[in-house]
Amino acid sequence: MKVLTRQYFYLTQLNVSCKNRYKRLINICFPEFEEIFKGSRIYEETALNFIKIFPHAYIVKEKRIDALYNNLSKTNSRHDYYYKRLANKIKEISLNSYPRVDKDHLDVKKLSDNGS
Fold first, then answer.
1. What is the pTM of this model?
2. Between the CA of residue 8 and those of 18, 22, 26, 44, 108, what are the distances in Å?
């Protein structure tokens, strides 16, 4: 039982560490992303898949709404209107986003890898 308890605490600690790293990278590369995916929604499959492909606000700025929509709609089976509205919202916040690093920075690559 002690071995299982230690393993559980180790895995919990590792999970918290990964989540903290992910949030730190989000705050560096696309700070306003948390406005869309608030609270624990930032760890949901939709957010993770999106940030894997579009890990920086400037990358989102360069994309068309339909490219963002297509990425979002692949994840779950919600209504199309939901994803169109979400894509518009993400595009809008990316236009007013001021990341701390350039889109070619290593942290952007780390975030993209972390989102997988």
1. 0.87
2. 15, 21, 27, 22, 31
